Amino acid sequence: MKYLIAILFILFDTNCYDTNPVAIKGIIDFNGNFTQSIISLNGEWEFYHNQRIDQIEPNSKFYVQMPSLWNNDPGFVGDGYGVYQLKMINVPKVPLALHIPEMYSSYNVYANERLIAKSGLVGNSKEATIPSFDRNVVGLQTENQEIRLSIEVANFHFPRGGIPSSLRIGEYSAIKAYREKGIAESVFLSGAAFMLGLYHLIAYLIFRKDKPFLFFGIFCLNLSLRPLLINEQYLVEIFPSISWIYWQKIEFLNFLALLPFFYHFIRVSYTKEPQSIFSKSLNVIFISLAILVVFSDPIIFANIPVPVYLLIGAAVFDLTRLLIKQIKLGDKGAKVVFLFFIFLAIIVLIEILIERNILRGFHFIEVPGFIIFLISQAYVLSLHTEKLRVEKNQADLEILNERRRNLRLELSFSTERERILSDLHDHLGAKLTDLSIRIEYLKPNQTLTEADIDFLKMDVKNCFQSFRDTIYDNDDFRIMTEDFMYGLQLNLTRRYARTKRELRFETNEHTRIQLQKIDNEELKRNLYAITVEIATNDLKYGSNATYWNFDLDENGLNVKMDVDSNFKNSGEFSIGTRSIQRRLESLNARWTENNENNHYTIHFFIPIPNLRN
Known about the structure:
It contains 15 helices and 18 strands. By secondary structure, the chain is an alpha+beta fold. A hairpin with a 3-residue loop joins strand 15 (about 540-550) and strand 16 (about 555-565).
């Protein structure tokens, strides 16, 4: 904020000129020399309303402060004409020149009643007046130390009449350099804004749907015209064939387009919410105002800045609310933008006060202020680009991880298919072989006993059951890829229900969710195999209800199974197969089992690294 304040003072310093000496009661005294190379001819000028230079009535004069709009001082309507006069005394005898700004909206400049500059055609009516854009630098004859400066101004085509900017006098070389410097600054600022706009439009084409680049690019391109339309109005000199009315339309359309593109740039940069009512209303209002500019005369559309200023205030409020909201969410870029946004709001306020002739003796500082702001926005957009790059890398990494997961799943499915084929071969194949052998022993015309029929029924039933179990196991595996705990619970529930045993399966949502996030298929496969084999032993030797509990903490997974046992000897009902022990050892698991008082309990803990992350 300190840097911004310092920059603001620099802008004031470089755009403000010492007005001493100043005119008092229509007279300015140079005391025979210039204290500065360039002096603004500000102060009290004589003004004769609705009079021409050859019709002046001395008793009808007013004293007005220059720069002067006669709408404000002394308070006449915009239509009309008049004469401004200033007597310069003790003028030094050095080559002098006068820098003449744009006036509303035609003028003749006289020095000691000799015409030295003109713009358009000054007349007493709208039909006799031709408006024009002209800024002139003219030399002054200094044989006499007293010069009477008279300026006829006529306006019938613009809402405001008079001289909105200061006239400046100085040594001829200094005034000429001042004019050339103004043009050079305008071209430089225009080029800077144009290059920024072009760069960000190209960036938009590369990043495609990233709208901040689009809005910022169009905003910069539009802003690049502004220095050439105001200040020294160099664009008017390049294209002199374009009429005054069309230049007014171009300038006002350029002015209108600044706010909506800037507003939408900030909005889409810091929120993904759909357009608000204010945002949509802003679009409609500015499109309507643009149509008004295109199809009406300057005397009408030149009044639109006042409602636009109100919209600017509303937009500043809305964007301030949005940026403060993003700052509270921890967006560092929003903090930088907010500081420069406040700076820009001050610049725009100053320009409005200058344009309305409330602040006098200043140049327009909007464009330098905008360029400083644009540099800050380019920096913020570079942060935005880096953010996009990181997000893209994260997205690419996620795609790569997803492909890896798919490959692992495909490998798991392949392994599972091999297991299913092996199970079908080992179990169903063996049962079909037994059934085939039993059928081969039957002799033609042999009468089957009831026992033979029961054996055949049992063999067929076992074949179907074996086939059904294999298919169920495959379904369970598919379900477990989507929700491991649910698939495991489904497998155990079905197996216990088939033997008419009661199963009480306990877990919690945290365990279910976190276990699914673990990207270790080997661990899950071993856990599934261990659980299935323990359940097989329980279904062989246990009785009544079985309690299974799965609980995941920050260190790993705890699994516990409790069941009544029909065996008195703990050695007969133990963890059983060596394969279960090998699987637990491969997972670095710890386990304990206990079989006392016809009750069997097994508990094992599987450590899971990096579970805290």
